[in-house]
Write a structure and sequence with these properties.
This protein is α+β, with helices and mostly antiparallel strands. It contains 3 helices and 4 strands; from the N terminus they run αβββαβα. The longest helix is centred in the last third of the chain and has 24 residues.
Length: about 120
């Protein structure tokens, strides 16, 4: 399932600590047993992604890298539908124990929930 033009470009990444701080301060939140995603609208006109996968929740680098790779891939596939917002994805300890499909399913649920939440908060 390839989406045309769906690349994960540098402009679609949160790079500066100030960007992360802004999202942590005023974020919409979506959470389940695997992941927590924070979202804060931006004025750029496109979504951006930041990752916060801690060693506390996934000790081995191979686990952290697998989780990050899945998150980036899911974001890349959904970014065309996402609002102009900055997203930070944080993994919980259970994430390293589940298979890839379960993580992708969780992400799909979060993206859909956050699209609705962002639309609701922007209309107020």
């Amino acid at each position: 399932m390839m989406v045309n033009g769906a690349r994960f470009k540098k402009r679609a990444r949160l790079l500066k600590p100030a960007d992360y701080s802004r999202v942590f301060e005023k974020a919409l939140r979506s959470s389940d047993r695997l992941l927590t995603i924070l979202a804060a609208s931006n004025d750029l006109g496109y979504p951006r992604l930041g990752l916060a996968i801690s060693k506390k929740n996934a000790k081995r680098a191979i686990d952290r890298n697998r989780i990050k790779r899945l998150i980036r891939e899911s974001f890349r596939m959904h970014q065309i539908n996402l609002p102009a917002a900055d997203f930070i994805v944080m993994a919980k300890p259970d994430t390293k124990r589940v298979d890839n499909q379960e993580i992708l399913k969780s992400l799909e649920h979060h993206w859909n929930r956050l699209i609705k939440q962002c639309a609701k908060s922007s209309s107020q």
